[in-house]
Structure formats: C-alpha cells, structure tokens
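Whiteboard transcription, Tuesday session. T.W. wrote the structure tokens on the left side:
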C-alpha cells in the first residue's frame, strides 16, 4: 500500500471515481449528491500537490483532496491550523476496507511536522451511517449546521445540512 500525490495522468480515473461516487450518492441520497467538479479545480489541486491517491497493489483504491483553509464551511474556526479533507472517492473494488482510517493515519503523519492542530472534514446530509463511520475512524462529530454563505462552494452545499467532523491533534 502506498499514498502518493495524484498526477495529471490520473485525472481521467479521478473523474471516473467521482462519477461512480455521485451515482452511488444518487441511489442512497437522492436529495443530495456531488455536482460535476471542474477539471480546472482538480488540475490545480494536482499542480499544488493537494490531490492524493491510495494505491493497493499498484491500483488506485481511493482518492481525496486537501486544503489548508475552508472559511465558508468552518467560518471562525478557519483561523485554526488545520488540514481539511475533501471528496474522498473509493474505487468500488476496494469498498469496505476501512480506507478512511488509512487516510486519517496519513493525515496525522502529514500534519505532524507542519504544526497542524486539526484534521477536519464535512459531509452534506444527515447520513447517520456515514456519521458513525467517520466517528469510528477517530473523528469527533461536531454536529449539523446550515452554512451562512455558500456562493463560492459547489452546488451540493446550497441549503444542505452540513455535518462537521474534526480530530484534535
């Protein structure tokens, strides 16, 4: 198993995983699923080394993106030193293998020498199963909120219930 930065050559597979995740979300949660993300967004994340992949036996098992600021979601807490994990998408061949726990351990190690105090995530919708999964992976569930300003966020945040999660390091 390896964790590496995604590369431009991964971009088609990244969008394939996003499409699979969105299809899954439509079946499970018809009221709230990911929009189509812009290619420019993902290319920028790749160029800035903020798009990651977990490889198992040389195959991409899952991908995710990070950022170090997320003011529209985290509002006043955005001033904290944090890493924000977004858009975890799992290859269906690797579902059920607790990959989020692997990402959490990676994030702890990644944060160790960068003086980062928190690992944070959010998800839209009141998905009790997902809330339970993320808390099992070590996150504290901070509750459900409505965001004040979603103008610069992807469309699935508009009028959504947003669940906030964090791990204090």
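and on the right, the sequence the group agreed on:
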């Amino acid at each position: 198993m390896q964790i590496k930065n995604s590369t431009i050559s991964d971009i088609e597979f990244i969008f394939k995983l996003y499409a699979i995740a969105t299809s899954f979300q439509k079946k499970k949660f018809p009221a709230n699923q990911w929009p189509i993300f812009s290619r420019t967004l993902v290319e920028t994340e790749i160029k800035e080394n903020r798009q990651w992949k977990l490889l198992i036996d040389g195959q991409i098992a899952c991908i995710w993106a990070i950022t170090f600021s997320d003011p529209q979601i985290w509002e006043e807490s955005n001033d904290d030193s944090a890493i924000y994990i977004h858009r975890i998408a799992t290859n269906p061949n690797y579902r059920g293998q607790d990959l989020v726990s692997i990402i959490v351990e990676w994030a702890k190690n990644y944060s160790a020498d960068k003086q980062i105090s928190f690992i944070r995530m959010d998800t839209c919708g009141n998905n009790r199963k997902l809330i339970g999964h993320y808390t099992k992976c070590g996150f504290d569930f901070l509750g459900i909120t409505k965001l004040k300003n979603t103008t610069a966020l992807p469309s699935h945040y508009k009028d959504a219930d947003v669940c906030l999660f964090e791990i204090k390091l």
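Someone added at the bottom: Strands lie at 2-5, 51-56, 59-67, 82-90, 118-124, 140-145, 162-168.
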